[in-house]
Design a protein that fits this description.
8 helices; about 200 residues; about 65% helix
Length: about 200
């Protein structure tokens, strides 16, 4: 299964800079063979994959609706908008700790849940998809929190960083571009989280 997931990742062309090889030294020996921990990882891998797919669908809607499709064409606009990425540095740190990584995934999901509310206004014809994404992000965050507690992992709360509800903008175009980058950042966040979970499942 680990081989198949690696092949699928290559086929999808997902290339992230995170140095995953450093995780081999992580202090997870007491958990890596635990059946409950492996079930925890597999369930969250499946859930994360589902959310990634739904975000991709919403990205296509934004592309078709607003003709906002390529990040490189919008970088100058982005500099003025203050859109930031929810941090996940604990998931590829040389001092990797499972609880710290999971805590950042949980907190990032909560932040993106709030940011997604902007699409209820931007894309009123796709309310069902947006609400499904919000619900899934909230459920995955809660699921991670609950399973961390069940596994006896310490929960860590980091200072608030990353996306929040979109502020008022001077133009609707800026509002649309901000939504575009929220989704792009959320997709990268999910890809990083997925790779971290998959790596742990393959240890």
């Amino acid at each position: 299964m680990c081989f198949l997931t690696r092949v699928l990742a290559l086929l999808l062309g997902v290339t992230l800079w995170a140095p995953w090889w450093v995780l081999h030294g992580a202090p997870l020996a007491e958990l890596s063979g635990d059946q409950d921990f492996q079930l925890f990882l597999q369930r969250n891998l499946e859930f994360t994959r589902k959310i990634k797919g739904d975000v991709a669908v919403l990205q296509r809607v934004v592309c078709d609706t607003f003709q906002l499709c390529k990040e490189e064409e919008l970088l100058l606009v982005r500099q003025d908008l203050g859109i930031v990425q929810a941090p996940l540095e604990q998931c590829h740190s040389r001092t990797f700790q499972a609880e710290a990584c999971f805590s950042q995934i949980r907190d990032g999901l909560r932040a993106y849940h709030g940011s997604l509310a902007a699409f209820l206004e931007l894309l009123p014809g796709h309310t069902g998809l947006v609400e499904t994404l919000q619900l899934d992000a909230a459920n995955l965050s809660s699921n991670i929190q609950q399973q961390m507690e069940d596994l006896g992992l310490a929960t860590v709360t980091y200072p608030t960083e990353g996306p929040g509800p979109l502020p008022a903008f001077s133009s609707r175009f800026h509002h649309q571009v901000s939504g575009f980058f929220i989704l792009a950042n959320f997709q990268r966040f999910l890809e990083t989280a997925y790779r971290a979970l998959r790596h742990l499942a393959c240890l």
